[in-house]
Amino acid sequence: MRPVDAAYEVLKSAGQPLPVYDLIEQVLETLREEPEPRRMAQIYSDINLDVRFVYRGDGLWGLRDWAPRSGPSRGGGGSTVKERFRPEEEADELEEEEGWE
Questions:
Q1: Rounded to whole angstroms, how far apart are CA atoms 6 and 12?
Q2: Helix axes 20-31, 3-14, angle to 10 degrees
Q3: With 63 labelled, which of 36, 43, 48, 57 sits at a CA distance of 20 to 30 A?
Q4: 6: CB partners within 8 A, 6+ apart
Q5: What is the C-alpha separation between 81 and 91, in angstroms, rounded?
Q6: Domain 3-66 classified CATH 1.10.10.1250?
Q7: What is the spatial distance between Cα 53 and Cα 18, in angstroms, rounded to a whole number?
Q8: Which strands, in side-by-side order, build the sheet including 18-19?
Q9: How many CA atoms lie within 13 A of 35 on its CB side?
């Protein structure tokens, strides 16, 4: 099992965000590995780069599956992605604010 997959399983079992150090320790226990600084750093990097994980602040990591999904309601009253995201307007605002030309 890859360490990042073990991290996913640890968080899934915990059912709540965990401090990164505790998460990495549990991953190493699962994999029956010693807590070597280099290995711990690699596991942290893997968690940081994997889209399944989300940093919750204060050193806590959770699963993206737990994050509330935003979007239009089922009632049909929401806006579409195209209506909400207008990059040309944002670029114009940035140019005005930052003095870009």
A1: 10
A2: 120
A3: 36
A4: 27, 30, 31
A5: 17
A6: yes
A7: 11
A8: 18-19, 60-63, 53-57
A9: 8
